[in-house]
Amino acid sequence: MASKLTLSQTFKRLSSTFTAKTAPSKTHFHAPIPDSAFPQGYLLTGLHAGVKKKAGVPDLGIILSTASRPASAAACFTRNAFKAAPVIVSEEVLIANKGKARAVVVNSGCANAVTGSEGLEDAWAMVRATDALLKPLQGEEGQKNETLVMSTGVIGQRLPIDKILAGISSQSLKTTASSSSPSSSTPSLGSNFDAWERAAKAFMTTDTFPKLRARTFSIGGKEYRMAGMDKGAGMIHPDMGPPRASTGQLHATLLGCVLTDAAISPRSLQSALTYAVDRSFNSISVDGDMSTNDTIIVLANGAAAGEGAKEIDEETDPEGYEVFKKELTEFTIDLAKLIVRDGEGATKFVTVNVQGAPTYADAHKVASRISTSALVKTALYGEDANWGRILAATGSIAISQDFIPSRVSVSFVPLDGSSPLPLLVNGEPRKVDEARASEIVSAEDFEIKVELGLGSESAQYWTCDFSYEYVRINGDYRT
Amino acid sequence: MASKLTLSQTFKRLSSTFTAKTAPSKTHFHAPIPDSAFPQGYLLTGLHAGVKKKAGVPDLGIILSTASRPASAAACFTRNAFKAAPVIVSEEVLIANKGKARAVVVNSGCANAVTGSEGLEDAWAMVRATDALLKPLQGEEGQKNETLVMSTGVIGQRLPIDKILAGISSQSLKTTASSSSPSSSTPSLGSNFDAWERAAKAFMTTDTFPKLRARTFSIGGKEYRMAGMDKGAGMIHPDMGPPRASTGQLHATLLGCVLTDAAISPRSLQSALTYAVDRSFNSISVDGDMSTNDTIIVLANGAAAGEGAKEIDEETDPEGYEVFKKELTEFTIDLAKLIVRDGEGATKFVTVNVQGAPTYADAHKVASRISTSALVKTALYGEDANWGRILAATGSIAISQDFIPSRVSVSFVPLDGSSPLPLLVNGEPRKVDEARASEIVSAEDFEIKVELGLGSESAQYWTCDFSYEYVRINGDYRT
User: Fold this and answer.
1) What's the complex ipTM?
2) Is B253 a catalytic residue?
């Protein structure tokens, strides 16, 4: 063995300066939304409780359903073995309440992950404090734990729980008529754009803009709304599934929340969400790292469905269910893409489209591998049409059938409507017009298309590049 | 969906300057080796054939065994589905010749990967041209294809084969008495340090120093030598296995070559190499990307064994075999570590030690996941004792048993003999002395130790950090 220590001690640190392309401004991806586009029956706020050091920055978000019935609730949680306390608690609440809930509370700045039994107590305390804001429903005085909880931020540090609880109890349903007045030091619950925006801001960690979208859709001639927010922007390679009872003793992040005023049964809401999450949040990668806290929650309070309206259900109303599922899937794809768009240090937004796979799972696996390759991602940053790295990444994993190199094709697809550029056709490299290749990869957005020639299944993935800025952000996150 | 194109077109590229810590100089990891330490019966050279643009830089290496018998030969090749032409050809040669060979030829600058049928022809031409340098052995005039071939560099471009063939045929066994004279423009074959060093230099791509080591060992009272070279420094996450007949129609990189003057049967040489490679080259990662060209070759020409000496063999001489296997494993670990040490842009050399796993494969899988996490690696670069990321990476994969969070411990182990620093003990985070943590992670070399508490198997992995320089090198590799 080389005498590592003695030699390493002689290392001399050199310092030099790189000129680095930084991420472009993305603030224009956030714009005002008309108040009428938001679903009915929700009150929201975002405020500075003191988890984050910087004064005034929102770090606590509260979302309440004010409908006269508990909302149907569904969620997908990280499959990481080391689930954070809020994940464990939210799973328990959802299971105990059979898919019903009335509130969501979220903090940013501290993930409450790997915080032992104290962390669990803190998460439960957030649930109880938020529950206390809710008006008891008729005949449900005994109902408890109607709040789902989410946290994001540094792992392994305890929450400043007193500050958070004080923040929660500063709110009251009595002040709900409108949003905060500019003179008020603590913004109150509201239902207009300002309130939704403040809640979205409370989700943010390294995000550069709040991620808030709204959508209107019709089922059976009736109009509904769906709105939601999410956040990234690092430790983003989610793999989330439906809630399950935790088996462990104890146990930064993707968080998202979708709210709708449609009425749908809890079981069908979960089923639609699981489908949607597989094709949206589980198909994005910023850095290939899966968080302990990833959580997507959806509430459907039925506020626009009218009293006594029948719930949408997969079995009794398959047609309505399919429409809802499609709307939810498209909406979650929109939200998921925003996370990649704002990936830490990202200068590119790249769609990886894998076709001709034997199964959807195979297509998804190949797309995921390409989307997480450090070499592919640095080439994207360098605007280098290095398709060899795409191929090497593809071939580095096993799928359900052997690859047949002579059937594989790779092309770059520009998104301005001009012709795709074939790079590899049936295993034989094309003489590439490098100027044209550069033209395509110098665009902000483009698509990498890989045809495997082994079947008819396809999958899409969305990824970004690996930049100097990513290294800077993550080399010094905690300080 | 957001209107991506219109929005992206409005992006404005910003430019800024980072002050970046660069990789320390590593040239002191290369030092002269006494001529007597090299195995007997080999002639080597390295020269500039013209694959690389820069004049004088070695890009062609030739290694010949001059023993009176063909050497036993073994190899491990990449498991990437898109094997480069030299990998396919070397596999064919090894299988056809039943584990015998007399030469190795290597070029750097172009990987001859994804080059179709022309690439295969080029690789065969390199084999034939190098074969022609060999003196026919008595009674083996008909012997053909005794050369194994390796290439490293850009994927998808054809070799400048005429330049390479001219380089090979510039060599001749007649000039073998000594190394090149300084006045000669083309260095000739030799057996001293200078010749070995030139061969090692011909392997290099983004490597900052030639990787050459030698080792002396005894079996049954007889002294043997082992020497070898390898190269990295990017697309390094090998998974190599023994040769197998190629099933595909067609098919930068880890290359390595170990030469010994011991006599060992081809089958036992392959068996020892497969064992050694799993614990050395298959246990390192620079960037998590598996190359199409990864190849480790070992030749054992028996030149120090004496005429008619019995070959070491797993069945007939298990004791000798175990010694040889141990020596080869330690030697390949030395060579593998050099690659991590010189990983593209690396400023750290980190050992990831996973203990308490149910199986070796589980331990290896966890160690690999930690070693490839972008967030762990950027934290290493930033000298941030962010153990939460280590835990998140661990929990993100499935192993043969469920993790039990309350049994998991993580610590940082300094290599200066001072006390390890526990960060997480049985699932509960310790109040960490951040100053002490910083002290440990600011060293060039240290160890991350993870105890899973699920069994008694362990595995080691070696990794480096993710730096600005890695992004710079790989954002602009081809230009």
Assistant:
1) 0.83
2) yes
